[in-house]
Fold this protein.
Amino acid sequence: MRHGKKVNHLSRQSGHRKSMLANMACSLIEHKRINTTVAKAKALKVFVEPLITKSKEDSTHNRRIVFSYLRNKYAVTELFRDVAAKVGDRPGGYTRIIKLGNRLGDNADMAMIELVDFNELYNGGKKEEKKVKSRRGGKAKKAETAAPAVETAPEAPQSSTEETTENAE
């Protein structure tokens, strides 16, 4: 039974667990993604997401609070400078856990935890936009929109010359 068990102890004493999570959080902030076990990834998600939320508002107080958890001034600087700029409009859910399978040596469940806004594969290097798709193919629309765009550029100078010739007559 897990009555009242809010923290996964990860088979470690509290000092070792806090240091391990702080080091993993610094690595996540620096490299934007890390590979670890599923249990550690879930514990790291709970540890690092409140810190990312604190980094949205850049104040001395918030920097000191985050530094007390991370204990690495380079990670704090990176978090408040680069990461906070990317996640500024996101209301939460800054990390993603992707399960990778089992480790070869001890068959442990492995996972990759990454910062959501720094993965170009899933969001294509830009913000995701919801697109409405119809049931019919979209090839004809692309061809139609490309053709008028090419024609509009040469017409603009011709229309201005026609107006000048009409004014001259």
Notes: Strands lie at 33-37, 95-102, 109-115.
